[in-house]
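On clarity, I found the account of how folds are encoded harder to follow than it need be. Since the whole study asks how a given chain folds, the encoding of that fold should be made plain. For illustration, here is how one protein appears when written out as sequence plus structure tokens:
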Amino acid sequence: MSDQTKSWLETRLPLASSMQSCIWNMKMAVEKPYLAALGSLITATLIFLTLSGFVLSLFYVAAPGAAFDSIQFISRNVDNGWLVRSFHATGATMLFAATYLVVFRTLLTGGYRAPNELTWILKLVFLGLVLIIGYFGYAMADGAVSYWSLHETTVAGARLTSFPGAISNWVFGGPAGPGTLGRVAVLHSALALLGFGVLALHLAAKRAVAPVPTKTVTLHPYYTSHHFVAFAVFALIFAVLVFFAPHWGENQLNLAAANPLVVPAVLTPPWYLLPVSAFAAASSSPLGSIFLVLAGFAVLFAAPWLDQSKGTKPGLFYKILVAVLALDVFGLCMAQADGPSMLSSILSTIFIGWYFLHFLVLSPLATAMESKK
């Protein structure tokens, strides 16, 4: 492009000068840049998943039986279809890993405390969205495990009455049938787009309550250089998973076609759905499962108001409790991954009990004790 053309374009659409003044030269507070890159990684991954999902949707057929065949067609007959599918599956893994890491980091640093209550709530809303999106994407595979998982979910939803039952009927159209996968596919795409709105609201809320920095730096090169390193590490892990373990964390039984007459021995979902699956499996009734899942999210939403720190920074004892909580959730996932058994049921009950004990008793006590020092 010639200088004359650039000058003509700049006078009518000043994109270059706007980027220079509003982005590259934007003043930002000095903070830990590698941790700050997590938000950018989540946004970039969501964009990547949207683009790869759009390509897959061109060939996907949302119908029982045909859905699994269309995925096999993508993997075997479409040029580089296997690569796009691996990109999408690995992108989901990386998105969940980054999102869980952000939630854990916020708990560890006390980033949910006033005046950051709204940013914390929006983080949890985004987490809930990606969990629903992830489940719908898992169900769309129509494999041997995801078929029966969707079947159990819709049957349980059909047993509900009043408002929960109406919601289930709107979403799934009753027990799993010819139209269920179509609804799931539409919601999978629509909620992904809604995720961008939640991220935008989170960014706006974060900037609204950010303190006036005593020391500032420009976005470029301070943040861009560190973000480049973070993205490089992220891309390396992503590439290793894509080419060597594209189905890491998934139930290998789901790679086979669904059989409506045969229920797999273990209905274990992908690793990123294990926490919710463990809470739901802790109750034998559909209403009890919904209650436990919602209660698990409710204590997270209530964390800013259960906290008794009164503005003090998190102490060592509180950080140890958060680390134990992370191990507790990891243990809960491992117990759920082993499939139904007496031992896994007992362990899941213990882990879920500790989860609620942490937020309702231990964390308030720890923050109250540390605020008095």
